């Protein structure tokens, strides 16, 4: 079946364009830095010992996403970081990272810190929408 577009001159509908594709720049020659994504949840003794809240160790019960990005030979002032919904966009003079996040995040309720000795940028983002299994 053929999809009708709103305007005859458009070549695709807005629903066909993946979210975050406006950030993608395939012609940028900078390399992607090494990174790791960690999930963090807030648990108390009632969770650990008694299991009262119903939380489990899965990512569905996590409140925060922590992204650790290795940026060797980079100064803090050279880092440009933009976070919107489900996309993290990081740019430095030598590296670039366009990362589609596994969960939507609150882009105004996050924090970043640069660990200069390890040359790592640590970004902590609060998950904004939980799935049906998340009890936060």
UniProtKB/TrEMBL annotation:
Residues 32-127 form the PIH1D1/2/3 CS-like domain. Signal peptide: none annotated. InterPro entries: DNAAF6, PIH1D1/2/3_CS-like. GO terms for biological process: axonemal dynein complex assembly; flagellated sperm motility. Residues 16-26 have a biased composition (Acidic residues). It comes from the Eukaryota. Residues 1-27 are annotated as: Disordered. GO terms for cellular component: cytoplasm. GO terms for molecular function: dynein intermediate chain binding; protein-folding chaperone binding. Pfam families: PIH1_CS. Belongs to the PIH1 family. This is PIHD3 protein.
């Amino acid at each position: 079946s053929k999809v009708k577009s709103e305007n005859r001159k458009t070549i695709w509908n807005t629903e066909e364009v993946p979210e975050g594709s406006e950030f993608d720049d395939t012609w940028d020659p900078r390399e992607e830095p090494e990174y790791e994504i960690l999930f963090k949840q807030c648990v108390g003794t009632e969770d650990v010992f008694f299991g009262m809240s119903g939380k489990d160790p899965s990512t569905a019960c996590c409140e925060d996403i922590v992204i650790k990005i290795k940026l060797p030979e980079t100064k803090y002032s050279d880092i440009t970081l933009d976070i919107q919904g489900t996309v993290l966009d990081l740019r430095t003079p030598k590296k670039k990272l366009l990362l589609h996040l596994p969960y939507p995040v609150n882009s105004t309720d996050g924090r970043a810190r640069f660990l200069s000795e390890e040359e790592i940028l640590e970004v902590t983002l609060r998950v904004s929408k939980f799935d049906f299994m998340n009890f936060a």
